[in-house]
User: Fold this.
Amino acid sequence: MRIVVIGAGAMGCTFGGKLRRAGEDVILIDKNHDHVTAINQRGLRLRDAGGEAVIAVPATIDFADAKPADLALVMVDSNSTRDVAPLIPALLAKDGVVLTLQNGIGNVEALAECLGESRVLAGCTYVSAALTGAAPTIPISATPFSEKPMARCRPAPRGWRACCARPVSPAGRCPMSWVTCGPSSP
Assistant:
């Protein structure tokens, strides 16, 4: 599965790095050229309760370098969602979907306006991260992951359960709860 993480801040790098470490084909997109150069030259240094790892993840400032994507994971600041949303359709493969794990309101709606509700997933996470230094080094909190579902949801698009089943958290679970746009299933 080709996964493009849009927004290589602390959270984008955390999820991109962990998905890459779990064996996924991941590329990061960010508008900060110096940050992208640092990631490409030195990799991501992720530090959590399980230790520290340097993970090589390719990064770019150009959306064209990242297509076609089966998944676009949107992790930009909420104030930038409306700016990046129109760029995503050309990035996605025919059956590709978008997942947002952003804080704030209006992100799902902004993405759905450009992509349609059926291609937008919304999720939440208990992961906390911060960029430190220029490396980038990302310390990740050791907050335990929930055993309970955050919300009931209708079936996710093809390929999603397989990706989520891969262990990407120290506890061996995917640190995301999937919720699609629109009404929940009963």
About this structure: Residues 68 and 93 are 5 Å apart (CA to CA). The chain has one domain: 2-180. The chain is about 20% helix and 25% strand. Strands lie at 2-6, 25-29, 44-48, 51-55, 59-60, 69-74, 92-100, 120-124, 137-139, 177-180.
